[in-house]
Design brief:
2 domains; 10 strands; about 35% helix; globular; Rossmann fold; 6-stranded mixed β-sheet; 4-stranded antiparallel β-sheet; about 250 residues
Length: about 250
Amino acid sequence: MEALKIEGLSKNFGGVQAVKNVSFTVQSGERLAIIGPNGAGKTTLFNLLNGQLKPTSGRIYFFKQDITVMPTYSRAALGQARSFQLTRLFHNLTVLKNTLLAIHGTKPSRFHLFQSVTNYKSLLTKARELLITVDLWEKRNTLTKDLSYGERRRLEVSLSLASEPRLLLLDEPSCGLTAAESADIITMITNLGKDITVIIVAHDMDLVFGVAERIIVLHYGEVVADGTVEEIQANPRVREIYMGVEGRI
Protein backbone atom coordinates (compact mmCIF):
# COMPACT_ATOMS: atom_id res chain seq x y z
CA MET A 1 0.00 0.00 0.00
CA GLU A 2 1.17 3.54 -0.77
CA ALA A 3 1.79 5.53 2.39
CA LEU A 4 2.61 8.70 0.49
CA LYS A 5 2.09 9.83 -3.08
CA ILE A 6 3.53 13.09 -4.43
CA GLU A 7 2.34 14.42 -7.79
CA GLY A 8 4.03 17.35 -9.55
CA LEU A 9 4.91 19.17 -6.33
CA SER A 10 6.44 22.63 -6.72
CA LYS A 11 7.17 25.52 -4.37
CA ASN A 12 8.16 29.02 -5.43
CA PHE A 13 9.55 31.79 -3.23
CA GLY A 14 9.18 34.83 -5.45
CA GLY A 15 11.38 34.13 -8.46
CA VAL A 16 13.11 31.17 -6.81
CA GLN A 17 11.68 27.71 -7.48
CA ALA A 18 12.87 25.70 -4.48
CA VAL A 19 11.01 22.50 -5.45
CA LYS A 20 10.33 21.74 -9.11
CA ASN A 21 7.67 19.29 -10.27
CA VAL A 22 8.66 16.53 -7.83
CA SER A 23 6.78 13.22 -8.06
CA PHE A 24 7.36 9.97 -6.18
CA THR A 25 5.59 7.37 -4.04
CA VAL A 26 6.56 5.77 -0.75
CA GLN A 27 5.28 2.34 0.19
CA SER A 28 3.98 1.58 3.67
CA GLY A 29 6.86 0.49 5.91
CA GLU A 30 9.53 1.72 3.50
CA ARG A 31 12.74 3.47 4.64
CA LEU A 32 13.43 6.31 2.20
CA ALA A 33 16.32 8.78 2.35
CA ILE A 34 16.28 12.13 0.55
CA ILE A 35 19.75 13.51 -0.08
CA GLY A 36 21.34 16.32 -2.05
CA PRO A 37 23.79 19.22 -1.67
CA ASN A 38 22.94 22.28 0.40
CA GLY A 39 20.21 24.28 -1.33
CA ALA A 40 18.83 21.23 -3.13
CA GLY A 41 15.34 21.79 -1.68
CA LYS A 42 15.31 18.96 0.87
CA THR A 43 14.00 20.94 3.85
CA THR A 44 11.46 22.78 1.69
CA LEU A 45 10.17 19.42 0.47
CA PHE A 46 9.92 18.20 4.07
CA ASN A 47 8.02 21.34 5.05
CA LEU A 48 5.56 20.67 2.22
CA LEU A 49 5.07 17.07 3.31
CA ASN A 50 4.56 18.19 6.92
CA GLY A 51 2.17 21.03 6.06
CA GLN A 52 4.38 23.87 7.28
CA LEU A 53 4.39 25.20 3.73
CA LYS A 54 1.70 25.10 1.08
CA PRO A 55 2.77 24.12 -2.43
CA THR A 56 2.60 26.44 -5.40
CA SER A 57 1.31 23.48 -7.39
CA GLY A 58 0.97 19.71 -7.14
CA ARG A 59 -0.78 17.26 -4.82
CA ILE A 60 0.13 15.23 -1.71
CA TYR A 61 -1.73 12.03 -0.77
CA PHE A 62 -1.34 10.27 2.57
CA PHE A 63 -2.74 6.74 2.49
CA LYS A 64 -4.85 7.86 -0.51
CA GLN A 65 -6.27 10.91 1.29
CA ASP A 66 -5.54 14.30 -0.29
CA ILE A 67 -3.69 16.34 2.38
CA THR A 68 -2.25 19.00 0.05
CA VAL A 69 -3.72 21.97 1.95
CA MET A 70 -4.33 20.21 5.27
CA PRO A 71 -2.75 21.97 8.30
CA THR A 72 0.07 20.33 10.22
CA TYR A 73 -2.02 19.44 13.29
CA SER A 74 -4.55 17.61 11.10
CA ARG A 75 -1.75 15.64 9.44
CA ALA A 76 -0.48 14.72 12.90
CA ALA A 77 -3.94 13.42 13.78
CA LEU A 78 -3.82 11.22 10.67
CA GLY A 79 -0.50 9.71 11.73
CA GLN A 80 2.35 12.00 10.64
CA ALA A 81 5.20 12.90 13.01
CA ARG A 82 8.40 14.85 12.51
CA SER A 83 11.67 15.57 14.26
CA PHE A 84 13.61 18.72 13.39
CA GLN A 85 17.26 19.45 12.66
CA LEU A 86 17.40 21.66 15.77
CA THR A 87 16.07 20.04 18.93
CA ARG A 88 12.77 21.43 20.24
CA LEU A 89 12.46 20.30 23.83
CA PHE A 90 11.45 21.74 27.21
CA HIS A 91 14.95 22.05 28.61
CA ASN A 92 13.91 22.91 32.18
CA LEU A 93 11.72 19.81 32.48
CA THR A 94 12.89 16.27 33.08
CA VAL A 95 13.19 13.65 30.37
CA LEU A 96 10.12 11.90 31.80
CA LYS A 97 7.99 15.05 31.87
CA ASN A 98 8.92 15.90 28.28
CA THR A 99 7.84 12.41 27.28
CA LEU A 100 4.62 12.50 29.30
CA LEU A 101 3.65 15.84 27.74
CA ALA A 102 4.25 14.46 24.24
CA ILE A 103 2.06 11.43 24.93
CA HIS A 104 -0.58 13.45 26.80
CA GLY A 105 -0.91 15.80 23.82
CA THR A 106 -2.19 12.92 21.67
CA LYS A 107 -4.82 11.69 24.15
CA PRO A 108 -8.34 12.92 25.05
CA SER A 109 -7.07 13.39 28.60
CA ARG A 110 -5.30 16.56 27.46
CA PHE A 111 -8.63 18.35 27.91
CA HIS A 112 -8.72 17.47 31.63
CA LEU A 113 -7.08 20.63 32.86
CA PHE A 114 -7.12 20.10 36.61
CA GLN A 115 -5.46 16.71 36.94
CA SER A 116 -1.73 16.10 36.96
CA VAL A 117 -0.42 14.23 33.93
CA THR A 118 1.49 11.91 36.30
CA ASN A 119 -1.84 10.59 37.60
CA TYR A 120 -2.42 8.67 34.38
CA LYS A 121 -0.81 5.24 34.78
CA SER A 122 -1.25 4.39 31.10
CA LEU A 123 0.80 7.45 30.14
CA LEU A 124 3.57 6.45 32.54
CA THR A 125 3.61 2.95 31.05
CA LYS A 126 3.87 4.33 27.53
CA ALA A 127 6.59 6.81 28.57
CA ARG A 128 8.62 3.99 30.07
CA GLU A 129 8.34 1.98 26.84
CA LEU A 130 9.47 4.93 24.72
CA LEU A 131 12.40 5.83 26.95
CA ILE A 132 13.60 2.24 27.13
CA THR A 133 13.51 2.17 23.32
CA VAL A 134 15.97 5.09 23.14
CA ASP A 135 17.98 3.97 26.19
CA LEU A 136 16.98 6.98 28.32
CA TRP A 137 14.84 5.38 31.03
CA GLU A 138 17.69 5.56 33.54
CA LYS A 139 17.84 9.33 32.92
CA ARG A 140 14.11 9.91 33.24
CA ASN A 141 14.55 12.31 36.17
CA THR A 142 17.37 14.26 34.53
CA LEU A 143 16.63 17.77 33.28
CA THR A 144 16.75 17.82 29.51
CA LYS A 145 19.26 20.67 29.53
CA ASP A 146 21.70 18.35 31.34
CA LEU A 147 21.61 15.66 28.64
CA SER A 148 24.34 15.32 26.05
CA TYR A 149 23.45 16.51 22.58
CA GLY A 150 23.20 12.94 21.33
CA GLU A 151 20.82 12.07 24.15
CA ARG A 152 18.64 15.06 23.27
CA ARG A 153 18.47 13.88 19.67
CA ARG A 154 17.38 10.43 20.79
CA LEU A 155 14.80 11.97 23.11
CA GLU A 156 13.35 14.09 20.33
CA VAL A 157 12.95 11.05 18.09
CA SER A 158 11.21 9.22 20.93
CA LEU A 159 8.81 12.17 21.33
CA SER A 160 8.01 11.91 17.63
CA LEU A 161 7.03 8.30 18.26
CA ALA A 162 4.70 9.25 21.14
CA SER A 163 1.76 9.71 18.78
CA GLU A 164 2.30 6.21 17.33
CA PRO A 165 2.73 7.61 13.81
CA ARG A 166 2.27 5.82 10.53
CA LEU A 167 4.78 8.18 8.88
CA LEU A 168 7.91 9.51 10.60
CA LEU A 169 9.83 12.38 9.01
CA LEU A 170 13.38 12.74 10.34
CA ASP A 171 15.28 15.91 9.47
CA GLU A 172 19.05 15.38 9.85
CA PRO A 173 18.66 13.03 12.87
CA SER A 174 22.44 12.61 13.28
CA CYS A 175 23.36 16.29 12.85
CA GLY A 176 26.09 17.26 15.32
CA LEU A 177 26.53 13.76 16.70
CA THR A 178 29.70 11.77 17.22
CA ALA A 179 30.22 8.58 15.21
CA ALA A 180 29.12 6.49 18.19
CA GLU A 181 25.99 8.59 18.76
CA SER A 182 25.15 8.42 15.05
CA ALA A 183 25.46 4.64 15.23
CA ASP A 184 22.93 4.66 18.08
CA ILE A 185 20.49 6.61 15.90
CA ILE A 186 20.98 4.12 13.05
CA THR A 187 20.22 1.23 15.39
CA MET A 188 17.15 2.98 16.77
CA ILE A 189 15.70 3.67 13.31
CA THR A 190 16.53 0.16 12.12
CA ASN A 191 14.65 -1.29 15.08
CA LEU A 192 11.43 0.61 14.35
CA GLY A 193 8.54 -1.61 13.36
CA LYS A 194 7.47 -1.90 9.74
CA ASP A 195 4.13 -0.34 10.70
CA ILE A 196 6.04 2.97 10.60
CA THR A 197 7.10 4.43 7.26
CA VAL A 198 10.30 6.48 7.63
CA ILE A 199 11.57 9.32 5.42
CA ILE A 200 14.96 10.80 6.30
CA VAL A 201 16.66 13.96 5.07
CA ALA A 202 20.37 13.65 5.78
CA HIS A 203 23.91 14.57 4.77
CA ASP A 204 25.36 11.73 6.86
CA MET A 205 26.04 9.04 4.27
CA ASP A 206 26.80 6.41 6.91
CA LEU A 207 23.31 6.99 8.30
CA VAL A 208 21.72 6.97 4.85
CA PHE A 209 23.44 3.77 3.73
CA GLY A 210 22.84 2.15 7.10
CA VAL A 211 19.10 2.77 7.12
CA ALA A 212 17.70 3.47 3.66
CA GLU A 213 16.15 0.87 1.39
CA ARG A 214 15.78 3.53 -1.29
CA ILE A 215 17.30 6.94 -1.96
CA ILE A 216 16.01 9.99 -3.82
CA VAL A 217 18.56 12.62 -4.86
CA LEU A 218 17.47 16.24 -5.19
CA HIS A 219 19.45 18.88 -7.09
CA TYR A 220 18.19 22.45 -7.49
CA GLY A 221 14.74 21.30 -6.41
CA GLU A 222 14.44 18.46 -8.94
CA VAL A 223 14.66 14.68 -8.58
CA VAL A 224 17.76 13.62 -10.49
CA ALA A 225 17.96 10.02 -9.25
CA ASP A 226 15.75 7.50 -7.48
CA GLY A 227 16.92 3.99 -6.65
CA THR A 228 18.48 1.53 -4.26
CA VAL A 229 21.67 2.29 -2.33
CA GLU A 230 23.71 0.38 -4.90
CA GLU A 231 22.08 2.16 -7.84
CA ILE A 232 22.65 5.59 -6.31
CA GLN A 233 26.28 4.81 -5.48
CA ALA A 234 26.88 3.77 -9.09
CA ASN A 235 24.94 6.65 -10.69
CA PRO A 236 27.36 8.90 -12.64
CA ARG A 237 25.05 11.93 -12.39
CA VAL A 238 24.95 11.63 -8.61
CA ARG A 239 28.72 11.25 -8.43
CA GLU A 240 29.11 14.37 -10.55
CA ILE A 241 26.79 16.38 -8.26
CA TYR A 242 28.57 15.27 -5.09
CA MET A 243 32.14 15.57 -6.35
CA GLY A 244 33.67 18.41 -4.39
CA VAL A 245 30.46 18.89 -2.38
CA GLU A 246 30.48 15.88 -0.10
CA GLY A 247 33.67 14.38 -1.47
CA ARG A 248 32.13 10.91 -1.59
CA ILE A 249 28.82 9.10 -1.74
